[in-house]
Amino acid sequence: MSEKVAVIGGGSWGCALAHVIASNGYPVVLYVRRPEQAEEIRTKHTNQRYLKDYPLSHNIHPTTNLEDAAPCQTIVMVVPSKAFRETSRKMGDFLKPDQILLSATKGIEPGTHLRMSDVIKEETACLKVGAISGPNLALEVMAGHPTATIVASRYNEVVAAGMQILNSTTFRAYGSQDIVGVELAGALKNVMALAAGIITGIGYGANTRSFLISRGLSELIRMGNHYSVDPMTLSGLAGVGDLIVTCNSEQSRNFQVGKRLGQGETLSDILGSMQQVAEGIRTTQSAYELAKDFREPFPIIEIMYKIIYQGMNIEEAKLHLLGRPMHYEHEPSRVIPQREKKPLPPASGQ
Amino acid sequence: MRNEDRERAIVEITGRLVHSKMESSKQGGTPIIEVINDTIYHEQQRLRSDRKSPTYEEDKVFWRQVQRTLPRASEREIKQLLHQTVDHFIREIAGNFNPYVYQASVKLVPVGLGFLLNAVSPVRLLSQLPKLPSIQDHVMLSGKVEALRKLDRKGTIVFVPTHSSNMDSPVIGWSIFAMGLPPATYGAGLNLFTNPLLSFFMHNLGAYRVDRRKTAPLYKEILKEYATVSMEYGYNNLFFPGGTRSRSNALERKLKKGLMGTGLRAFINNLRANKPNPRIYFVPCTINYQLVLEAETLIDDFLKEAGKSRYIIEKDESSDIRKIYNFASSLATMDSQIRLVVGQALDPFGNIVDEDGESYDRRGRRIEIERYVMRNGDPVEDPQRDHEYTNELSESIAKEFIRDNMIMVTHLVAKAAFSLLRQKNPDMDLFRLLHTGGDIELLTQQELFQEVETLQMQLRDMEQRDELKLEPMLHEHNAEKLVQRALRLFKSYHTSAALQRRGDRYISEDMRLLYFYQNRLDGYALDSSSQARAA
Fold first, then answer.
1. Strand ranges inside B420-519, DSSP E
2. Residue B253 near residue B80, CB atoms below 8 Å
3. Are residues A51 and A77 both part of a single domain?
4. What residues make up the domain containing A186?
5. Residue at A337 is within a domain
6. N or C: which end of chain B has fewer CB within 10 A?
């Protein structure tokens, strides 16, 4: 029998990951918070609330007790970024330094600007940490549509362990050493997804969305430079790959939030009506703090911050973004001065 | 190393290296013959430019001999040659040993600054420097001294200090003695061994020879193995993780991982051998000077290479007897101080260690660190994993340096003056400012005092938050006194003053020096008074 793997978090992605791993023959201990949910998974092998009728592997063993999950050699953390530190700290009471921890949560902690794998290192004795990220919409993964993901860690051992449990014919796992790039891209793309949603909500088409994705990517790259991120990471699955899916799919929660904003709903109404967390909201704050520190232009991140946290209206935001000075594509400091536009001469009456 | 250990170590190290090279060659790694050829190549390259080396003739003959034998050598003879090659290096590194000298020299350590200065300058002897101040009066120890003493009984200590001057080794050597700890093994540059008297002491205070001109990878591996084995034998070690003196005087951020990784290897080897006290403790220390002996040469080198260190400085203030004399008298007359702070001990994975030698995570939970290196119940080496563990350690050490950096009056006043000058010359890039001194080069008394005071307040707050340390003077005096004090120090030793008074204004005679001293505060988030006002 293969060794057990723990998955911490019973949201849509947590359950889907548990299902992928369990289907590969690894018994999964799945930690969920609500007893009813554990019961549903145990008896009906479904998770109606997040994954509709998709049947979950019988190899998944739900628990509501963190301690049950702790003895597994490999542990995958999939809790919302807001609860990530606290959950890690609780886990830390049971963990031993030889265990492998993988984070599938996408976010950057506001204030500390730590990536999730760094939070694990702060809250536990574990150093062998990694991250999982890629174009992975939970429902499509459950439907068995082929896709791929990245397992990133500075420790080869962690990359190998992660790839081992995840890889299958419908879910291909690739390895990477650039954990900083993978986690940064995974977090920041959610901000871009909000923006892409807004554009769609307004009613703009594919041109505009593509314009936003490309300029969003250039902000990712600019941010990545400050962390010596390999640009190849950002052009790969965890970067462009994830950006494209999350900025295009109605299934993306962040995209949904953005879209409703674009259609004129208020943020509090939208968030109030949602069952799941849109990570982009929180990440927008962290990204904005970082952008301020780096003293470089991050127009999309800045405008998203103003929309979400300062109540800027969409019309105003549009003017701000599109009215910025002209500059070279990859050199924002190379600005071309705008000429005064002369009013057209009155049409000569002939 | 003690005599009996030294011979044992030589055999052990040679055995290990030959074994690992043979194994790696068998598994498709570099063939032995290439390892030897590569070493010959590096050595002959070195000999071409290193004719002054005391072992020049001997080395030439040795390498010629190896080169001649190699092409016709059988499998067994090749192994033999590898053995000889390793032995050739290791004997030089380990040096000769006389147990009587060891006894005598340990007693001689605290002779004072005279010895210390002799240690930095192999040129002259003690007697020629009159009126030397005593080292006890100038080196101030603080930090976790008690914890260190206790820890010394629990396992093997590796001291990892900041490095800004050739005086660091004697300063820390003396401090280790003063704390009642056994001498630490450390690799000292070959230049410190050229003086027969000094060499005599160096060897017997636990130093082994490091010839920085020897670039062969095999040689570097042997050095690391020497450090590893000495730790396994329970000898405390000392190395400067910055690798070389900080040219800019800024704290070391990027640390050399090669030597640092030896602690983890020794720990794993100890576990495998079931040693009773297998743990290795890294103790970061910071050493700060009000005035740095070689400041002028170091900052010059920094600016010339724009950050790329040349690694070997042939001649600097520490080989100039007049400079040393001036430095010593400045120490004496100015009552100038050297501060060594013993920092928080760390394990080879970068976790903090308490005085009982136990490791804790950041939430204060005890860690069974043995498990970091276990696989299926056995301690194993894994070079990639271990390299990353050592990265964690080096990040932790760099953080401790920042916290334990003791800011001196010269750093503060230099920082104040320098940031004012930068503000007054906003269009000038750094290098031009350093070169020309700026279009506006005078500072008024009022603005300087105010800037010093603003910084002083922030620094005090930062010390409260345990973000750095301040020499007591920065608590006791006001801005005016501090400026006076710094100015007197600057004037007392360097050829030109980093900052001095001209009429009722202040001016820098040597911008590079001003920059050098302020760099110690590099990387801390400090606002200048104009910013503080704006905020």
1. 443-444, 469-470, 500-502, 505-507
2. no
3. yes
4. 181-328
5. no
6. C
Integer Cα distance of A63 and A14 in angstroms: 13
Active-site residue, A189 included: yes
* Interchain CB contact of B371 with A (< 8 Å): yes
In this predicted model, what pLDDT tens digit does every residue of B388-403 receive, in sequence order?
A: 999 999 999 999 999 9
Q: How many domains does chain A have?
A: 2
Measured distance CA(A302)–CA(A297) in Å, rounded: 8
On whether residue A340 sits in a domain, the answer given is: no
Same domain, A211 and A163: no
B51 at interface of A, judged by CB pairs closer than 8 A = no
Report pLDDT digits (tens) over B159-209. 999 999 888 877 887 788 888 888 888 887 776 665 555 555 565 566 788
Whichever domain contains A28, its CATH number is: 3.40.50.720
> Do residues A92 and A16 both lie within one domain?
yes
Which residue, of A151, A177, A203, is where some domain finishes? A177
User: How far apart (Å, rounded) are the C-alpha atoms in residues A287 and A252?
Assistant: 19
Cβ–Cβ gap B351/A125 under 8 Å: yes
CA distance B497 to B507: 9
Instruction: Give the integer Cα–Cα distance in Å for B535 and B522.
Output: 21
Q: What CA–CA distance (Å, rounded) separates A261 from A252?
A: 14
Q: Which amino acid is at A160?
A: A
Q: Do A155 and B385 touch (CB under 8 A)?
A: yes
User: In chain B, what residues touch A127 (CB-CB under 8 Å)?
Assistant: 349, 372, 388-389, 392
Residue B372 with chain A: CB contacts under 8 Å = 97-98, 127
The domain boundary, picked from A177, A209, A232, lies at A177
Tell whether A169 and A63 lie within a shared domain: yes
**Mean pLDDT score of chain B, rounded to an integer?**
85
pLDDT of residue B411: 97
- Shared domain for A153 and A207, answered yes or no, is no
d(CA A262, CA A204): 10
Distance from CA of B474 to the nearest CA of A (A): 30
